[in-house]
């Protein structure tokens, strides 16, 4: 995503959120593919991507890594072949501009301006509601697979919104 696109996105909000949902917990692969397989299959794809990334990294071949299967390819489990387990232990994309001095190496390989509905809603909420959503996520203690699926299919947001509307939420310690 370019700096201009980030600015457009954050224009929706009074101020940028403190927590980046794409990197919350173990990170998110939700919009980095489609028709995902079972958890074991996605994990296998992730391990393979990560191993291949390290193989190319030895020779400083980030572009060759990206191009190894051609544009818009998917692994059998539905995951983009560029999603890896980063050195910080989170899922992520090594082509992201934040990791490449502002250069977006994803261009032509994915819809790099895309944000899921959950994230777009989150950006439009006031800060207090955002914080309650983060507390809600923390209570859920989801793993990387369930978190990613819950973000992209909107189920986490819907569950949270139902709780928000519940007048008894204070009684349940949800504030
Ligand atoms: S599904 Fe949403 S939270 Fe997950 S990486 Fe995509 S935009 Fe970020």
Strand and helix layout:
Layout: H1 3-10, H2 39-57, H3 62-67, E1 84-85, E2 91-92, H4 117-124, H5 127-140, H6 144-152, H7 155-165
Antiparallel strand pairs: 1-2
Bound molecules: iron/sulfur cluster.
List keywords for this structure.
single chain; 175 residues; binds iron/sulfur cluster; two-stranded antiparallel sheet; disordered N terminus; mainly alpha
What does this structure look like?
With 175 residues, the chain is mainly alpha-helical. It has 2 domains: 14-26 and 114-175, no CATH class; 32-113, no CATH class. The protein has 7 helices and 2 strands. Strands 1-2 form a two-stranded antiparallel sheet. Mean pLDDT is 87; it is low at 1-14. The structure holds iron/sulfur cluster. Residues 21-22, 28, 30-31, 115-116, 118-119, 151-152 line the site of iron/sulfur cluster (SF4).
